[in-house]
């Protein structure tokens, strides 16, 4: 199966969680919006009313005739097909539950710089952003990181699900990467308390296919248009 | 199967989306935290480290040995078992995609009164709340409502998925209920433009089991501790 991924071409954003799964599995895929005329194709697919099943927003994945949106939903679909989760239903539901928790975390990371409205610039909501980011740093990041650390500790295994890497591990890697970029001082303080999560991050980064991807031009650089943005004033 | 639902006893919140599905299906279930010593049972289950699969937050559902958290994940599991979605994978993924879009909408509804931090009182973030609510009313509610309206229009059917009611229809009903409570003026203005969504809401409310549930003491009243809160100043 040759997958088509549709996502904004200039940011990692939510699409990156899907890219990491496709890359780790060595799947055949096209990052459509990054090809010539790809943005047009993406817009067309979103507006195609006839289909009756329009995505609310990117990312979405075309797999044969299926068009699947919502990051966690895409990963739920891809997981067993890419060998990135075990087949039995309980395992798939547990992985999905963790992925949905990461999705909540991602939304909160985004809202640190856009607490008022996505339709306004960061500069128009800076005061609120400072307050929201302070709460995110002191309460939310420790709560989420602590949650995953606790699971890794109780499992005692190399990865979140079991001995094999799953798409949830890739997503936790990406969260840590993003938080390091956006909140380097906060993460420098918190990482020592979450050694298992940091080890998992390193283990994922060292996987041959992922290491290759991360150093390739296919990996978009972090930047201040994405979900994880570095604004010094939000990390003090 | 006798299901056990775990959720905060004094609010509708996210648990309500699960309650509606269980009620519509006439499923046997216990709303555990609303029984004597139920809150203790809920806390114990969340802290039980041995299980290795702790929920991050309520709601969660106990189904035999399975403990499933994340509202949309619970509904994904229950859907086919309660006859509230068709069995084939494409239908289940499409329903889930819509449910995840509703989950995003719910989070945004919550953040209108808590744009800075869940750990602070509304009164401590009132100015930011006014601004966020203004954007929610003018941009976000029309965008989400318009999305579902467009699907209903293109389908031309009584319900979102097909001719039979699905858990997504129940959730859209609940969104409209919640928004009417929290933002009555906004909804009075918007409803005429979204006739199919309003009709779907009424169709769901008139279903015998749901009508019975909605007028029973099992339905918690909307209040200012929940996700949908009525603050006059946020609806002007």
Provide key terms for this protein.
homodimer, 236 residues, alpha+beta, Glutaredoxin, Glutathione S-transferase Yfyf (Class Pi), Chain A, domain 2, 2 domains, 4-stranded mixed beta sheet, 9 helices, 4 strands, 54% helix
Query: Which fold does the CATH topology of the largest domain in chain A refer to?
Result: Glutathione S-transferase Yfyf (Class Pi), Chain A, domain 2
Order of strands, widest sheet of chain A? 2-1-3-4
**Helical content band of chain A:** 40-55%
Helix segment count of chain A?
9
The profile of the biggest β sheet of chain A is: 4 strands, mixed
Quick one: overall form of chain A?
Answer: globular
Quote the distance from N terminus to C terminus of chain A. 47 Å
CATH class assignment of the largest domain in chain A: Mainly Alpha
Radius of gyration of chain A: 18 Å
Global structural class of chain A: alpha+beta
Question: What's the pLDDT, averaged over the residues of chain A?
Answer: 96
Count of structural domains of chain A:
2
Oligomer: homodimer
Number of strands of chain A: 4
Proper CATH architecture of the largest domain in chain A: Up-down Bundle
Measured by residues with Cβ under 8 Å of the partner chain's Cβ, the largest interface is: A-B, 42 and 42 residues
Order of helices and strands of chain A: EHEHEEHHHHHHH
Ranges of chain A where pLDDT stays below 50 over 5 or more residues in a row are none
Explain how this protein is built.
The structure is a homodimer. Chain A has about 240 residues and is of the alpha+beta class. Chain A folds into 2 domains: about 5-80, Glutaredoxin; about 90-205, Glutathione S-transferase Yfyf (Class Pi), Chain A, domain 2. Chain A has helices spanning about 15-25, 40-45, 70-80, 90-115, 125-155, 165-180, 185-190, 195-205, 210-215, and strands at about 5, 30, 60-65, 65-70. In chain A, strand 3 and strand 4 form a beta hairpin. In chain A, helix 1 crosses helix 6 (about 165-180), helix 3 (about 70-80) runs antiparallel to helix 4 (about 90-115) and helix 6 packs across helix 8 (about 195-205). The longest helix of chain A is centred in the middle third of the chain and has 30 residues, at about 125-155. Chain A starts with a strand and ends in a 22-residue tail after the last helix. The interface between A and B is large, with 42 and 42 residues.
């Amino acid at each position: 199966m040759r997958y088509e991924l549709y996502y904004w071409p200039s940011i990692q954003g939510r699409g990156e969680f899907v890219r990491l799964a496709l890359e780790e599995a060595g799947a055949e895929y096209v990052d459509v919006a990054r090809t010539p005329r790809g943005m047009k194709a993406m817009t067309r697919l979103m507006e195609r009313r006839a289909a009756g099943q329009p995505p609310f927003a990117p990312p979405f994945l075309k797999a044969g005739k299926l068009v699947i949106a919502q990051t966690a939903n895409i990963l739920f679909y891809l997981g067993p097909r890419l060998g990135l989760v075990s087949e039995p239903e309980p395992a798939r539901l547990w992985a999905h539950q963790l992925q949905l928790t990461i999705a909540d975390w991602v939304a909160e990371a985004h809202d640190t710089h856009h607490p008022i409205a996505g339709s306004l610039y960061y500069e128009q909501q800076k005061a609120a952003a400072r307050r929201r980011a302070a709460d995110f740093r002191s309460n939310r990041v420790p709560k989420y990181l602590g949650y995953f650390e606790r699971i890794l500790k109780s499992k005692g295994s190399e990865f979140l699900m079991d001995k094999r890497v799953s798409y949830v591990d890739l997503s936790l890697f990406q969260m840590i990467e993003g938080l390091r970029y956006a909140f380097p001082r906060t993460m420098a303080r918190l990482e020592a308390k979450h050694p298992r999560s940091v080890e998992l991050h390193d283990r994922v980064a060292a996987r041959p296919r992922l290491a290759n991807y991360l150093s390739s031009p296919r990996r978009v650089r972090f930047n201040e248009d994405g979900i994880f943005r570095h604004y010094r004033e939000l990390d003090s």
